[in-house]
Structures are given as structure tokens and as C-alpha cells.
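ESCALATION

Customer reports they have been waiting on this structure for their group meeting. Please prioritize. Original submission:
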Amino acid sequence: MKKRIAWITADYFVDVDMPIVPYLSEEYEIEWYIIQGFDGKIEVPEITAPCKIYKRRIPYRRRNPKCISFYAGIAKQIKAFAPDVIYVDAMEVPYMYPVLDFYLPTSKMVHATHNVVSYEGWHHRRLSQLYLSYVFTRHKHFHLFSQHARAEFEAMYSNKNIMYTPLSLKDYGQPTQGVVPANDKVSYLFFGNVRQNKRLDVMLQAFAKLPADMQSRVHISVLGSCDNVAYYKEMVDALDCSVTFTPERIADVEVADIFARHHYLVLPYENVTQSGPHMIAYNYGMPVIATRIEGFTEHITDGYDGYLFEVNDVDSLVRVLQNTIALSSHEYGVLCDNLKKTIAQKYSSESILAEYKRFFDTI
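Update from on-call: job pushed to the front of the queue and completed.
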């Protein structure tokens, strides 16, 4: 008899679980609950998987106490399913976990831990940190997606059952035939929600310090939702290089072509646990330029399959940009070939899926 798994995914983490659940459904009996936000800003694609999929849209904003009954409905349905494992890839501050804990055994729950601490710039940061502390204290089983976050978590909480896997590569389909980076410019991409800790300002300041002849040889794309558009637009407008600035959410159907059109993804973050755009770039074989922090150094070997620069150091990034602009097409090809080797060694779907199975068998 197959082991039963109730799998809860928030819409903002669907891209994490899409490469996993359909394949695990071949070995486990899975009911997949996808929680969609009240505002409907995040599109959930049609999913084909050999399991039951229930999409549930929250009828209120997440902090509305009326959401308690919504989460209770999901918990009761899961209880009736009688799963052996309850995998939760959702935060849903502040009501979901207390409601799940009321109806369901915490001994069967696995919390997908994307962040161990709340970061500067988070909405309702103090509330989020209290909520994280509640989840980490009350529960036993956790899935972490980076080695440095695992070490940080283990230093804070003892006697926990922990699974580690890197994020799966994020696949948004094949690029349109013929979509490739322009030959006459080196193209750089900043992709995803623009938050203070992601330090887009450092990236734009670095491009502004490039000599004029180098600025003429680059194109920058800044694509993603942004709360402080005027602040960044002023810096964008001051640049002499070619820039595409689109401060809004990008539709999933556009992602493959966007990554195919660029040479490098730039991640100038000052802190990170793991990065979704990083795994999109790796899916499309794109080298990454990132800060020298633990969330990136475990994935990038500087100068071999990508580049690292010092955190919040504009001049350090300028030097990396100058080096990448000066690369010949052959040297860039070697960089991409090295990245392919890294991806094959560290991010194979077979090894990631095997770790999920091993971990679920311990519960």
C-alpha cells in the first residue's frame, strides 16, 4: 500500500514544488492543496500530475481572522484523507500553522524552510519572525534548501529531523526558437521582486561607474515588481548604457525568452537563504554574478562557473563587470560549459527526488 502524503503549497512557492510533486506522485498517494492569494496576483499554471489537486483561493486578506475558517476547511479535508506525511510549503502568516496544529498531528508535518530568520524589508517583519519561531519550536521535521541555512538552523534549534536538498532547477519551458543574446552587447539581467536587501542600487551604481566605451557595450534589464519605482528610475535614467526597466510582475510565459536573451544574471543581494532566480538561470545554463555571501558561495565557484563580488561593494562589482565585458565569445563558452558540469553534479533531479523519498521514509 502506498504511503499517503498531503502536500500544501502556497502560490508563491508553486514553482518550487512543480518539479517534485508530479514525480513523487508515481510512488506515493498524494493530495496536493494549492493555496492561492486573495488578490490573485500570482498565476498558478495548469498542472498535470497523477494525484488529486485542489486549488483553494483565500477569500480574505491573510491577516483577516476570517481566514481561520478557510484554513480549518483544508485541515479537516486533510484529516479525512489520513495521510502519513503532511508536507507544508507555505507560510501563510499568521493563522495557518496554529490552525493546522489544532487539527493535525505535528509529528507528521514537514515544514519547507525557505528562511530561518526574517530579513530587512519584509512586510510585518516582527510578526513574521514570531511566526517562524512558533513553527520552529513546535515542529520536528524540516526541509532546508541551503547548507548555510541548515547550519544556522541547527545552531538555534536542536533535536530536529532535517532534510537538505538544493532548490530544483526552475523550468519555464523552452525559449522561442531563435531567441538568443544580442551579439553586439553583453546583456545583464536583474529579475524578481525588488526589495531593499537585494541592493539593485549597488548594481546600478556599478554600471554607472563603467567607462563610457564599456557602457556602450552593455544592455541591462531590470524586471520585477518594485515598491520604490521613482528611486530606481532616477538611477536608471542617469545611465548611458541601454536599459530595459519594467517594474512589474513578469508573466510566467515570458520567463524562458527573457533568460535566453541575456548572458548573465546579477544577484547583488546583501543577504539571502536561497534564490529562485538563481535556479531559473541555472535551468537555462546562464552564469550568475552574485555577492560573496553563503547563500551564493555554496553554488558558485568564482571564475569557474560564475563570478562573485564583495557584498555592498560597488567597486568590486565594477571589476567583475569589466572582466565579463572583456571576455571573448570562446571564454564565455568555456564559462557556460563549466556551469553545465556543475549543474549535472549538484542539481540532478534524480538525486533530489531520492532525498525526498529517503526523508519521507523516516516519518
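Sent to customer with the following note: The first strand starts at residue 4 and ends at 10.
Escalation resolved.
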